[in-house]
Amino acid sequence: MNIEKQLEFLTARHVDLFSADELKKKLEIAAKEGRGLRIKYGADPSAPDIHLGHVVGLNKLREFQDMGHTVVFIIGDFTGMIGDPSGKSATRPALSKEQVAVNAESYKKQVFKILDPEKTEVRFNSEWLGKMKFEDVIRLSAHVTVAQLLARDDFSKRYGANQPISLVEFLYPLVQAYDSVMVEADVELGGTDQLFNLLLGRELQKIYGQYPQVVMTLPLIEGLDGVKKMSKSLNNYVGIDESAKEMFGKIMSVSDELMWKYFLYILCRQPEEIEAMQANVASGELHPRAVKDELGRCVVDRFCGEGEGVKAAEEFVRIFAQKELPADMPEVKLPAEEIGLIQLVVQVGFASSNGEARRLIQQGGVRIDDEQITDIKAEITPADGMILKVGKRKFARLTV
Question: What is the dihedral of CA 38, 40, 45, 50, to 10 degrees?
């Protein structure tokens, strides 16, 4: 693929790019020298599960790999122990070394469902940040002014609203930028909420005598609610390590409007193909549910294995359209003695706490043998074959 075509391919679906000319020049130099570019991507290890929101960036990284470039995947184990506002009004909680280590291992396992491990260099920023002395931090801080840091949108808003901003938060963009210096990044990718930090990396590379990285941002896609960006903490996410049944069911709950964005950013369908489907839906030739069914099957096939999408679609129809029970329902063995409904839901594993179980019951999301129970004080005596249903997709057959 020539440089012009490669540039067009690699810049598809981006939001910000600094700049196309610089990227073209880097591609030309790399081609002449017979090497690939180093594409930096930083991952926050505060949550161990990768969801479809992360896939937007990972897709682009894989496209760079397919063009012969190397992804430098930085797991922010050191910065994860600092905390980061990332556009939020409150800081992320700092993590322990043990939490970061466990989350990082989970991240590495999941990320290679998308990335090519042969073209991925996994780094931990504790490699260099953990060795810095306080005098090194002071020298690094001297390269950035408070005025520069207050230009970051979320800092500016919080400062204007007289909300506190800690010095630790000021240091975070700086150490993220320093990562670019240490790995000698040619390009850095991130979400639109990371633009300030990515641009700071360019500035710091210039100070350290490096050719500045190209910065590319990608959109933050909305989660299942169609309003807020996909996030595990908001419970509006689709995890790539979830079961095929769970994944398909969640995709089918996406709004008709949002599904087109998932086709574009998750499945990387061509805009022309999406426009053709939209026209067929508008004309009545194609039903939106059929389109969403295809989306669900394709997403499941990609992350759960070829053919799993069809199975999940058939199971979905059997459960929700035909009102039948799932074929692979788990069995849970319990003593033949009374148990509170709240405790039952937790013990079966359909709620992580009594509080969550209580909310599910009060909201009408719990059924025993298809009978809705909203009494949080209800006592249940398990019997062989009794069916517990929680929410739309969680079923268990009780045995004594």
Answer: -90
Q: In angstroms, rounded to a whole number, what is the distance separating the alpha carbons of residues 266 and 57?
A: 9
| Mean pLDDT value across the chain | 90
Pairwise CA distance, residues 114 & 93, whole Å: 28
Alpha-carbon distance of 82 to 99, in angstroms, equals 13
Q: In DSSP terms, which residues pair with 368 in a beta bridge?
A: 371, 388
What residue spans in the chain does CATH classification 3.10.290.10 cover? 331-399
Residue of higher predicted confidence among 338 and 221: 221
Q: Cβ(120)–Cβ(40) under 8 Å?
A: no
- Tokens representing 140 are 């690094």
Residues 187, 211 contacting (CB under 8 angstroms) = no
Chain centroid to Cα 233, Å, comes to: 11
Model confidence pLDDT, tens digit, residues 37-93? 999 999 877 767 899 999 999 999 999 999 999 999 999 888 776 655 444 544 456
Q: Is 169:91 a contact under the CB 8 Å cutoff?
A: yes
Q: What kind of fold does domain 331-399 have according to CATH? A: 3.10.290
Work out whether strand 187-191 and strand 214-218 pair parallel, antiparallel, or are unpaired: parallel
Q: Is 371 helix (H, G, I), strand (E, B) or coil?
A: strand
Q: Tokens at residue 395, please?
A: 């079923």
Q: Are the beta carbons of 332 and 397 closer than 8 angstroms?
A: yes
Class of domain 3-218: alpha beta
Rounded Cα distance, 5 and 34, in Å: 18
Distance CA 292, CA 240 (A): 18
* Residues 64, 119 contacting (CB under 8 angstroms): no
**Rounded Cα distance, 228 and 226, in Å:** 6
C-alpha to C-alpha distance for 151 and 218, rounded to whole angstroms: 21
Pair of tokens at residue 161? 């609203």
CA triple 189-99-184, angle to 5 deg: 30
Which residue is it, tokens 């995947």? 73
Q: Could you give the residue range(s) of every CATH 3.40.50.620 domain in the chain?
A: 3-218
The distance between the two most distant Cα atoms of the chain, rounded to a whole number of Å, is 75
**Structure token digits, residue 320:** 């929700």
pLDDT of residue 83: 55
Q: Which residues face 29 on adjacent strands?
A: none
Q: Which amino acid type is present at position 23? A: L
